């Protein structure tokens, strides 16, 4: 199982690097939007729940102008509304996000490195970059066609339905791209087109509720996630392609 | 560590001896992503919340 160990070690290095890159991009791209959107999410959940105390006698709550109190309330907000543990804001929340980014980076790097080993392994950072772009198409672009990245406050269809569609779309797109790249017949190309189009013909589960956040914030969030995903996948591909040679030479 | 050395031809790159560890590594990746991106336990969700939103996973 030396090959297994080597893939895992390479993926661990790649995932750590890509996770750190993701964290940096995220702090400037998606994170400020998540925090902003949580203010609206919180405002809506407060509006639908009985208030313990009413500090707004006029009742004219301005959803567009977030007061400092709103921000504080949103930051203290826990999803699910129960007593579940959630990281405290500040360093703890940042460190858990960093950890999730790195662990997820290792997971995606395992997929990319393993898949490329099936084809004989990456030979350069440039080849790795192309694999990274395929990863971006499979895990960012394709699912976001039917399920645009949701900021907090954007309610979707039942979570399980969306997860099933999301995973199914990623699998079908990956299989389609592999057929396109390595299939040798017109039939394979036709199969690839069907596989890539099928999830969108079937259609993603759609939300019944309008989002709680303004449209431009929703739009900015989709752009931020797409760019973040692009940088993340480029980093995974380039690092995997660049580092793989060192392992092969060792 | 010599297993990674490229086979003489691309077509010969995949033998049964290579396929098993590759598939195992792939499945490990699926398992890891399932944990950070899709596990519905409240604690897992809250810890990975900002990560899930930033990467476009369906979150809540």
TrEMBL record, chain A:
A Pfam family hit: CbtA
Keywords linked to the UniProt accession: Membrane, Transmembrane, Transmembrane helix
Protein origin, superkingdom: Bacteria
Family annotation (InterPro entries): CbtA_put (IPR012666)
Residues spanning the membrane: 94-116, 128-145, 165-182, 187-206, 221-243
Name of protein: Cobalt transporter subunit CbtA
Naturally occurring in which organism (per UniProt): Methylopila capsulata
Lineage: Bacteria, Pseudomonadati, Pseudomonadota, Alphaproteobacteria, Hyphomicrobiales
From TrEMBL, chain B:
Organism this protein belongs to: Methylopila capsulata
Keyword Membrane belongs to the record: yes
Keyword terms: Membrane, Transmembrane, Transmembrane helix
Residue ranges of the TM segments: 20-43
NCBIfam families according to UniProt: CbtB
Keyword Transmembrane helix attached: yes
Protein known as: Cobalt transporter subunit CbtB
InterPro entries with a match to the protein in the record: CbtB_put (IPR012667)
Lineage, uppermost ranks: Bacteria, Pseudomonadati, Pseudomonadota, Alphaproteobacteria, Hyphomicrobiales
């Amino acid at each position: 199982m030396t090959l297994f160990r080597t893939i895992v070690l390479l993926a661990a290095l790649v995932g750590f690097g890509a996770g750190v890159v993701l964290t940096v991009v995220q702090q400037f791209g998606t994170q400020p939007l998540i925090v902003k959107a949580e203010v609206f999410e919180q405002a809506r959940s407060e509006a639908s729940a009985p208030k313990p105390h009413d500090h707004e006698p006029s009742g004219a709550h301005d959803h567009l102008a977030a007061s400092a109190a709103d921000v504080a309330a949103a930051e203290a907000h826990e999803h699910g509304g129960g007593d579940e543990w959630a990281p405290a804001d500040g360093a703890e929340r940042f460190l858990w996000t960093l950890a999730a980014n790195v662990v997820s980076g290792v997971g995606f790097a395992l997929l990319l490195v393993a898949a490329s080993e099936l084809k004989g392994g990456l030979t350069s950072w440039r080849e790795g970059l192309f694999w990274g772009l395929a990863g971006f198409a499979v895990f960012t672009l394709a699912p976001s066609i039917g399920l645009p990245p949701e900021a907090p406050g954007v309610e979707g269809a039942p979570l399980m339905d969306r997860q099933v569609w999301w995973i199914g779309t990623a699998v079908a797109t990956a299989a389609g791209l592999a057929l396109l790249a390595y299939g040798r017949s017109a039939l394979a190309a036709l199969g690839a087109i069907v596989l890539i189009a099928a999830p969108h013909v079937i259609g993603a589960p759609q939300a019944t509720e309008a989002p709680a956040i303004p449209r431009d914030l929703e739009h900015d969030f989709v752009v931020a996630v797409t760019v973040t995903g692009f940088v993340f996948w480029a980093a995974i591909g380039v690092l995997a392609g660049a580092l793989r040679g060192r392992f092969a030479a060792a | 560590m010599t297993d990674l050395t490229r086979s003489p031809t691309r077509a010969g790159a995949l033998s049964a001896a290579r396929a098993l560890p590759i598939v195992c590594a792939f499945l490990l990746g699926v398992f890891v992503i399932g944990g950070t991106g899709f596990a519905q336990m409240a604690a897992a969700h809250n810890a990975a919340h900002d990560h899930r939103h930033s990467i476009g996973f369906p979150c809540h």
